[in-house]
Specification:
The protein is mainly α. The protein has 2 domains: about 80 residues, Helix Hairpins; about 35 residues, no CATH class. The chain is about 65% helix and about 0% strand. The protein contains 5 helices and no strands. The chain is flat. The termini are far apart.
């Protein structure tokens, strides 16, 4: 599914089942909530926290929920995500084409010593 198809699918679903889009500010709050739920799963799966009894390791669902609300916001504000994403890739390529390749933290297996760390 392309971004355009995703935007059309979400719009069709909203108009068929959702009655109408929530307001933009409501959807921004919902997006923040969904990102928090994604962060919770990430902290438990990859961080130092463990899952509480009854909590699910549903990383895919939480990412999809974030995408859903982001698509809703794009639809209701007139943003074409395909065009916007293409511009972002161009911008990042122009700005960062050498930055990450020349970053010793990335190219030296992350073994570069931070300037504040003592030599042992």
């Amino acid at each position: 599914m392309t971004l355009k198809e995703a935007q059309e699918t979400v719009d069709r679903w909203i108009r068929t089942y959702g009655v109408r889009y929530f307001g933009e500010l409501t959807n921004m709050a919902v997006l923040t909530e969904e990102v928090g739920e994604l962060a919770r799963v990430m902290a438990r799966r990859y961080g130092d926290q463990s899952f509480k009894p009854g909590e699910r390791d549903n990383l895919d669902e939480e990412m999809a929920d974030v995408l859903w609300v982001l698509i809703c916001l794009a639809n209701q504000t007139g943003v074409d995500l395909t065009e916007a994403f293409a511009r972002t890739i161009e911008k990042k390529t122009r700005r960062d084409k050498d930055r990450h390749i020349n970053n010793p933290k990335l190219t030296n297996n992350g073994n570069e010593q931070h300037p504040d760390q003592e030599q042992v």
